Amino acid sequence: MFDLEKILKDTLKDKRINSIKDEDARELSEILPGEYLNKSKTVYRAEFIYRLPLSYGTRELSRFDIPEVILSWAGMDNPVQINNLLFYDTETTGLSGGVGTWAFLTGIGRFESDQFIVRQYFMLDPGSEDEYLSELAKEFTEDIIPVSFNGRSYDSNLLNSRCIMNEMKPFLINQKDIDLLYLARRLWRKELGRCNLGYLEEQLLGIARDPADDLPSEDIPELYFEYLETGNAELMHKVFKHNVSDILSMPVLFALIVEVINSEDPQSIDHSALARLYRDLGYEKEAEACFKKGLTGNNTVICRAQLSFLYKRQNRLPEAIALWQAAAESEIYALIELAKHAEHKVKDFQSALNWTQQAMKLAYENEFVDGRQIFELQKRLNRIKQKIERSIDN
Amino acid sequence: MDSIIRRFPPDERFTKNIMAVQEIPAKVGEYCEIPSQLSDTIKDILADSNINKLYSHQGEAISQALAGNHLAIATGVASGKSLCYQLPVLDSWLRDKESRSMFLYPTKALAQDQKRELADLLSRLMEISGQSCGGIGIYDGDTPTSQRKMISQRSNFIFTNPDMLHLGIMPHHTRWAKFFSNLRYVIIDEVHTYRGIFGSHFTNVIRRLKRIAAFYGSHPQFICTSATLANTSKFITKLIEEDVQVIDKDGSPQGRKSYVLYNPPLVNRELAIRRSAMLETIALGEYFTETDQQSIIFAHTRRMVELIVSYLQRNLKNPDNVLGYRSGYLAKQRREIESEMKAGDINTVVATSALELGIDVGGLDVIVINGYPGSIASTLQQWGRAGRTGDDSLGILVAGSDLIDQYLVKHPEYLFKGIPEQALINPDNPFILLHQLECALFEKPFRSGEGFGALNGAETDQYLDLLQKYGKVHRSGDKYLWKSDTYPASSISLRTTGSGEYLLQCEGLVIGKVDEASAYWMVHPQAVYIHNGQSYLVKELDFEKHLAILDNQPLDYYTQSISRTDYELLQETGRDKEKGADKYQGQVRVERQVTGFKRIKWGSQEILDQAPLDMPVTEMVTMAYWFSPTDETIEKLKESGNWNNTPNQYGAAWKKLSEKVRSRDGFACQNCGITETDKAFHVHHKIPFKQFVNRYEANRESNLITLCPTCHLLAEQEAYVQSSLAGLGWLLQNIAPLHLMCDRSDIRVDVQQQSNLAEGRPAVIFHDTVPGGIGLSTRIYSQHKKILAQALDIVNSCECSAGCPACTGPVAESGEGAKAKVKELLKYLVQTDV
Description:
The structure holds two protein chains of two kinds. Helices cover 53% and strands 14% of the residues of chain A. Chain A is of the alpha+beta class. In chain A, the strands form two sheets. Chain A has a seven-stranded mixed sheet. Chain A has a two-stranded antiparallel sheet with strand order 3-4. In chain A, helix 13 packs across helix 14. Chain A is globular, with a radius of gyration of 27 Å. Chain A starts with a helix and ends with a helix. By secondary structure, chain B is of the alpha/beta class. In chain B, the strands form eight sheets. In chain B, strands 1-11-18-17-14-16-15 form a seven-stranded mixed sheet, with helices on both faces. Chain B is globular, with a radius of gyration of 30 Å. Chain B starts with 11 loop residues before the first helix and ends in a 5-residue tail after the last helix. At the A-B interface, helix 1, helix 5, helix 8, strand 10 and helix 16 of A face helix 5, strand 6, helix 6, helix 18 and helix 19 of B.
């Protein structure tokens, strides 16, 4: 066999150098309060307990009530106790979130009577990832509501992906969750521009992390790799701290969001989102006004659709029809509504047929040809055709 | 050629340029029953469309597919290949509505049209069966991010391409868990396009696909469509690493077909210059448009397409009849073009290649190919577009002035007997494999000894151990785990070996890429680079940024780099004796330095000037084949050199000059040292006279040397041998692509007078220009006899008198009489009794 290294030397030249194992390195248990969770010592759990209220920037970490609006926004019907919220955040070995990325540290935070408790699960050996995930999974019980910052796009996908890679049942798949980034964007994007956690912390919570202490996220993977090679737990100290800060910020941010929503005059908010919040609270007049404002903004399509359904529910059909006609050129739902109206209210079957055919045509031209939608349209077409035939016979 | 060829212009102005004709009589269709194993619902929709039988190849393919075999369907264009995979795929969905299938297409245009066809069939099936379906989705670079999750979760049928599979799907396969768990079929369209580097990467992407599918418990079945190759079965088997049934007996009915090989007339016999192929194509195109025949004209480059279209539109009464087809048309536009063609509003379409078309125009009356498209397989495929069911059709190849074009029209058996080339891939090219293994590792940890596709455990571990040494792997027990924050798939392109690339930039836009090793001789400063029929001048080559800055300019010359090359043998993998020479193959390290370049005028091939360059040395490892004439052959050649040496005209001032030189040299032979006695010694040109632009250059004193008659004879003999080898090298560089489906630049032919690869003897060396090699050169090793015989054939049949770019190289390059010398050399190397 030829000398592979010699042949590939130019391609390999900018790889990283492995560090050597440090025999005198300090162990995790010497640096962070916690314990190893298994005999083979491949999973470590650190724990920190905070007494409430805890001063945090310009605000404070303390208990609060969760308004109905947020729950219905998150798709939950039943009231939720604050103790059921599970705040979580991961530290990972890469931003791509692809299948080759590990979530080597996952921290969770919960309210418990007059305390806030943070527990951090750490994976000492990627080869035993399944043990780490099994321990972590125990936190995610039936009754908890996961709360994250960007978890919907990133952390939950990653954790679920890790479960699948280890042939375990993903523990975050079917749960309702609350993503504070999504909420924050709704409320503050126009005003603040950026919505990353650090920036929000600074602007809204008055937190400035000490640069000497904190770490840029890009450096985190390399620290973990070096830890794997050297066994030196000191390297992980800052990562654990960084993670704790991320977790503590979340309930504080959440409380601020609740405050803003409960206040009388919410400003600089996305109209369609706010309108829907009003609508869900039962304030239909305010909802209508908000939707109308949104028609000229950059949420025209959604506002128009939602407003038309509002009118339909209020039986203000001429107004609804006007909106559907405007949307008919490009929106399938509008064509379907017009078809329904023509078929059931006006009994104008020919028009209904035309609207449905147009809808079918649009459906085929979509990037994604939705099987269910076509199935339904086909049924509608057949039904209308039958009605036409029957009326000819009569 | 006395009978009139249907559809061809009867005028003598055209008919006199016909070199050869093949008439294939009409063929009735061969039919068979609809395979009974298909579900009743499918039989119902076939019946609804009045289809109660299938072509024999369709029936065969469907039965094989339903029996669980991997398949390749290699029948002609418009023979209903799509149905061969659509029916089995839909059948499996009917039986299990969670079943999933993946469709890989080389172009978006093809994918969109196929998606539409499948959607039609699917909706009818849903109507009859009442079974609802997740849907069909195109998942590629254009798919909006907001839709990706839904498409990946809900679609039963995914249309994508190898790049997206490699970069966007595999590295996130957990999002596709449901898809992979239920993956039944993988359909690969136009599989013959996956050759060379791209094909080598593709095999590895398929290895990764199968590996991940197995993780989710699936073992998909592969159905491919292909053009016919010389090695269809072997090639596809190597590409997807499964045993494939190849179905190539076409059962569809064919109208009568005529194929014409057309050679533009000579306008300068001595230099063998012919009238431009493009002008002939345009004249033919005018005739077909005016006689209302539906035709497609295929031209190599976009520029050519535009030129032809503008000429045609200028000359025709009805310019709207002609359309220049560009790739990148949207689905809507393509359908408009289709219906306009079917309605007869457009007569003639000019396009760059059959693949880019992606439109279904049924069949056409005439296909005109402007210049050989680079492979016999493509020629046959492009011709294959001609012929509506039952109607006569005509296919014409208009030969360009290239060596191969000329050779093919004079040897019609290549195209008429349809002996296409072999497609080659080398999935285990170390550069390609290293990068692909990184991607595979990212996707799932490896166990020691696991292996990767056809690569065994020990070899795979060798790569993984190397990655560990360089910090990319974490070992845990017998597992290898990816340890890096990078995303390996994004750092490689499936079309290069990734071993350092230069981007070619013109006016801020990137127009192409070249491998680092090739950059120095292809795009050195002041080089002329041809791309898509346009010429560019290289203004700057930035070594740090790996960037070549180009300027788009029409130029009347091209450049050729001069370099010094050294070879180091890393491993010899074969050697043998042939007539008059020894041949070898193996892995070599090539060290090359570009030392200068020549500017050569287009057309006349005259060398305008020559300039030095200061470029870094490049090194690369690749596969090579070389042969070395035996000492006996060299002796015979030298002897014949004695008789065949023609005296040169050196100019009137020669006598004076030679005296001056002899005086400078002390009237002594500069080689053996003896001094003149009674007769004057000879003055010899170190670099042969004929290789200079003019005699002043040639006669510079630094190029002249005094030699005694014996030494002079030896020097002349050396020059003779050199010249014949150089000429042979040029000739072979031209012929090689005929045997391999590759571009001229994929392989390099070099001649060394004293080669360390051949124990100091002269050698002609072929090596792949791709780092790591594709296997092109080593393929020629087994074709040695054939290639040299063909070389002799070409040199004998070329119409030039002393040499030309089409055979042994421009006269100025290899010296006058190179043609004769090459013929002499080949006499000793070629079996004439065969």
